[in-house]
Amino acid sequence: MTKITLCNERKAKPDFSKLGFGKYFTDHMLLMEYKDGKWGEPEIVPFKPFEMSPASNILHYAQGIFEGAKAYKNDKGEITVFRIDDNFIRMNNSARRLCMPEFDSAKVKAALFDLLKLEESWIPTAKGTALYIRPTMIADQEQLGVHASKIYKFFIILSPVGSYYAHGLEPTKILVEDFYTRATIGGTGEAKCMGNYACSLMGGEKAASLGYDQCLWLDAAEHKYVEEVGSMNMFFVINNVVVTPALVGSILPGITRNSCIQVLKKYGYKVEERRISMDEVVEAANNGTLNEAFGSGTAAVISPVGVLGYKGKDIIINNGQMGPITEFLYKKITGIQNREEPDEFGWVTKVN
Ligand code: COI
Description:
Elements: E1 3-4, E2 28-35, E3 38-39, E4 43-46, H1 57-61, E5 64-66, E6 69-73, E7 79-82, H2 84-97, H3 105-118, E8 130-139, E9 152-161, E10 172-177, H4 194-209, E11 214-217, E12 233-238, E13 241-245, H5 255-266, E14 270-274, H6 278-286, E15 290-297, E16 301-310, E17 313-316, H7 324-337, E18 348-350
Parallel strand pairs: 1-4, 10-11, 10-16, 13-14
Antiparallel strand pairs: 2-3, 2-4, 2-9, 5-8, 6-7, 6-8, 7-18, 8-9, 12-13, 12-15, 15-16, 16-17
Bound molecules: 2-OXO-4-methylpentanoic acid.
């Protein structure tokens, strides 16, 4: 059993019908500290600000990684999580890339389950909502030299969420970014590290200023091949074949991306993981074979893409509507997550 220090007073809950994404946090969090070459025990403590040195190395050199997962509760009060082991495997991969210590995921998972049970009243139950789980690891040594830290904090905070995009399931407008770059081969693009997201802000702001929801990153070497959206992996349906960029090292190996591929293959769809150029996307749009486009992610779930802005022109996909394969995947994956569909892939774990 995890050591628990309870908060003095629980916060008032927000209106669960107007959650948005990542705005509210539960009363407690998980905290585990690394020093003298080893991790301490995970503990549940009140959610509150950290006290840290202004010279802490996370604040200067961004040695930090995170994950995103979700917990669900049904009307019987049963709590479940979706593919949480895969999140911890990916987090330990990210830790190795950022020269951070790996952690015992079985121990952290058990402590997370205790936290979820304690925060059960924060798990929204309406369709399209969940309790977002944000495991995070930061370097916390007081040192300005550029070296891997010897002291770390691992924490998990929880946030009741609705849809990631303000307009919910309505198809998104994505601007293809052909100047700025998110990640390069040999860089940190496939790790879920904080710097990747800081680096993506300029493209996101540019897209927003031009009326788009997000930007789509291209490869750094030629600005030719599709990579990812930063908050989502990208899929296209061309001539009824589902195509997604191959994981070449600069793209996040999305857990929802992997779920989409497994579901599609099982249900007889043709899926290709390969390089896909914007020239190919434009050609498919011009000759009428670009059937659908969508993004996948824990926060974004399955988000249809209705418009792709590229080189000053808007490519309208499926008349700006969600296509049938996107809808099939959305229903299948959210159905498995909400336990309205059988867990045919063994992705759902019971917490209580
Ligand atoms: C997630 O989907 O969980 C992520 O971490 C993406 C984030 C930008 C919200």
